[in-house]
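Hey, resending since the last one bounced:
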Amino acid sequence: MTGGKGRKTGMDNETLVSMRDAVRRELLGNILPFWMRHAPDPIRGGFRGRVSNDLVPDDAAPRGLIVNARILWTFSAAHRAHPDPAFLDMAVRAAGVLMTHFWDADRGGAFWMLNPDGSPFDAKKKIYGQAFFIYALAEYVRTTGNAAALERGREAFGLVERHGYDAENTGYFETYERDWTLAADLRLSEKDLNEAKSMNTHLHLMEAYANLYRVWKDGFLAGRLRQLILNFRDRIIDRDNNRMICFFNETWEPRSGLISFGHDIEASWLLCEAADTLGDPALSGEIRAIAIRMAEAVYDRGRDRDGSLWYEADPSGVVDSDKHFWVQAEAVVGFLNAYALSGDSRYLEASRRAWNFIDRHLVDRVYGDWVYRVDRNGNPAGNEPKISEWKCPYHSGRMCLEAEERLGRILQGTPA
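The structure tokens again:
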């Protein structure tokens, strides 16, 4: 098959149509129905904090900002692509939870975690959490035009800029206490380093600001979004190895040699989205070239023989060979993006193989949704819950939405 600009995909139409239809079925027939069925709490309202892999709810589990924000983003985006009153109902429910219960009416900003009764469990203001709060509300505004959600997203943006921005060195500090004083423990989670700045927080703040800019064309916001993109170009991406540095001190000195293949391939396409949102062709061109190099590095160093991505490595080699659900989802989108930018059919095949791995090993045909991770042999590893503060429909649902749209463009001959 020949795509746009005379490029050859290396696949026939039937294969591309089959993949497009498969990810659509996965979204509409498995992921979204699972979350509509098992996430809402019929007793307390809102969404359950934790549900085991075999669907046993933990009514005492706290409720995380991240999973609630990601539910809002997912169902808002799904309703825009596939209008359905049930998707909109889920989005409305999630928006209400975020704006009413997670929002700190006294100090501003979103709490990190709530008790099941809606009171604060962890009142810290983690910038990563504020990013997803903004990102989700912006998507809800894109779908519904809700003025209150836009105002709350703008307010959260102002608080992040007022308290979180490092005016001396640029970038954003990781974590604050409820009163917006800098926390002693800056870590996003127990496995992270207690450092001032991280790739992860900056990546998702960039993603959030890009989405907010889609619904609020503010000049100051545009400037901060541009600064985030430039910090990736100039500080966060190791240009010698075309991968991201994970942790930094206050003055951007690297503090980690860890390689996160999932974040690298995710960043390769999110950087393009952010640059394109600003509408600067020169910046977009520069970022696209970087994105291709990042995708190539993951293609060369991060893939197992079955087409899946390992979780983490360091300069000595792979240190965690498990296959996490979100990493494989980002591989599907990141390699599709690399194909669109380069016309190199290897990336299209890499995307297809990543999807095939998901379909064979991660989709749970017994209990629904996806298992959290499998080992190198494709067997379920650990016993992580199906729903938790970190297990959500965002990576999987977004992959389906992105892949459906991008494969449609390839089939039409206009992949870029």
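Residues 1-6 have pLDDT under 50 and may be disordered.

Sorry for the duplicate.
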